[in-house]
Records
---
Amino acid sequence: MARPARPIVLSAQTIAAMPEEGFSEAATRGDVTWKTLLSSSRTLSDTLTSGLARCAPRGGHLKCHRHTHPEVYHVVQGRGIVTVDGEEKEVGRGSVVFIPGNAEHGIRNEDDEDDLVWLYVFAVDTFEEVVYRFGEGGTKAKL
């Protein structure tokens, strides 16, 4: 039986206390961490999954990958370069990026001092539905 969706408010303290996740294979997937904020596998929510991702200064990055679901980035801190289907664009605090489904994309921190932090949003119930495919071979990686 599905749980009913309800309004959810996460305080800054609650978000700060959430554990950060990351790739065990950073060399092939990227030096990035994230906190899943909304996902029906963790919260009484549906329809949308979102979280905060973070790349450290001086080289933090999420390698180029694909997934079938479209995604939105909203940069909340720092500056960097987002690549979508081979096209690079500068992003900074306040930037919003729409990434179509199956578009190859990645992001890297271009700042020497500040973290690059962005909110990501998928129109899926759970983060587990999003299958990341890295590299030419399409290596699948569930997060």
---
Amino acid sequence: MGWDKDVILKRALLRHNVPNGLSTSCHYDRIFLRAGGDPLTAWVPIGDCTADGGGLMYLEGSTDVGKAMEADFMERTEHLTPEERIDRFNQNMARDGQLSHNVIELDADIKAKYSSSKRRRWLGANHEAGHVIFHNPYMIHGAGKNEDPLGKIRLGTDLRYYWEGSQVDERWMRDVWRLEDGL
């Protein structure tokens, strides 16, 4: 990143993905971190995770789309208070703060609104314990459906870093989660 020094957020997410259950839908991380600068996310699988075991999938070359979506969001929310604007549960997001729960619908929406001729693929891979994947806050991603043939639950964690001296989303520096955090 070229940072002299970084700061890690206190809140780290532990996410699960149970076989044939709901998991993390399509999003870009800036949705959840709007009160600060641009963080770097490290996704770390806890244990081995095959591509059909519910690991992360990334929309190829989607950083430009995430930035365009965020710019559009900020324009449409100029009338909101700062507190409402940073809350992912607002009128501009899906019911739980995500972009979409359906990659086919999201692909069509992206093609229609942001890049009519560019073909983008959803990319996934097998991951092993010890792997770390870094991504910027505008990369569109989500968890694949867990169809692990052995019925294993996939666990992973998100660690978020900021350049020391940049604006940090203080909601992520609190030790205790509260419903009104908007996270």
---
Amino acid sequence: MQNFDVVVIGGGPGGYVAAIRAAQLGFSTACIDGYRRKDKYSLGGTCLNVGCIPSKALLQSSENYAELTHSFADHGISCDNPKIDVKKMIARKEDIVNKNSNGISFLFKKNKITELHGWASFSANKDGKWVISIDDQGKKEEISATHVIVATGSNSRHLPQIATDNVNILDNEGALDLTETPKELCVIGAGVIGLEMGSVWARLGAKVTVLEASDKFLGAADEQVAKELHKNLVKQGLEIKTGVKIGEIKNAKKKVTVNYELGGEKLKLECDKLLVSIGRIPNTNGLNPEAVGLKLDERGFIVVDADCRTNLPNVWAIGDVVRGPMLAHKASDEGIIVAERIAGQHPHLDFNTIPWVIYTNPEIAWVGKTEQQLTAEGIKFKKGVASFMANGRALGLGHNVGFVKMLACEETDRILGVHMVGPFVSELISEAVVAMEFMASSEDLARIIHAHPSLSEVTHEAALACDKRQLHG
């Protein structure tokens, strides 16, 4: 039986990063992953294979098509009868996924990490070592480890009244693999997946209706930001209904019928495809936690402390399978932190400075507290808001909707939250994250020189606006 210092279960953005960091710190390391894509093992987890990476590829393709058909004329660029080859678009997406997955294998070899494939489960604890069973399509083996890091991620949450077949009833995986644009797409759930994938297919010509159970649109985001995004998505043709109660769903060969209730009125919607994006649940399938007494909470998450330790000695858990936001970058950071804690180091993770992004058009991004949270908590704050409307770089890009909002403590001026909606705010948010990590004030950002012309000038203006000295608005 092979023995390792560290065994990581799961090769997603939490698991493979944890394995690399553990190997860098001198531990003999193995990573076990069971995900198969197109009948082949593929490292990278949900994020790389059927989540973050492929969705961004399709978003970019659909945005290029939308620019060509709607916006390029303003630049003096014209094209007769533009067409979209959806199959080629999907093939490009697959190529990007394959390159990234193969890149992880390369990094494993570079860092002398043992790459194992199959479904891993806890077997026993013998002589202070954890025995892990691996089932590779019927071929079984066992390995042992001093430390185990569980990074098994999450699965799509499905509706109880209808089975997901990824033909007519889709989850994120099915929505990424459509080979033609549906005429009508219904999306249940106005979260990240629903809005991003709804945007993709709307740009390519689908009539998209989004049904959301909550009365609020994007309740986790700042209300002002959510309102601006909602306005722009509606302009782009998405129909968004909130406060919806989903009833019976019928899946016929060519049509899906969704019965729902809105404001006491019973309604019906027929569509070609139905995307179910109602959140995700922790994945402990086949892990066999009961064999070793690994503790789960009532929602199925592995119970960990602030340092990602489980109730078992030398067993750790990170990412979507534990508490906290289900974000790839949160999982990666936890993976690094756990590897360093195993090595006796003392890193930290501040949940309040984890950035959030939704890659719609316009994008939205935020870090820290929303205006509504600060008000509810009785924290006195000042705010500065600056628009992209007159920003020279945004005007040149042809994307000048949106704004940056900065919230700072009224007494100390320390930045408490930054909220953005507009072009490339997924990149701009990092300045706010760095500022908050270093406990910066709005005055600090206001005193920093920002390049001109650049989108980041809007962040600078928002910082100035916190003290009512905005220069360009």
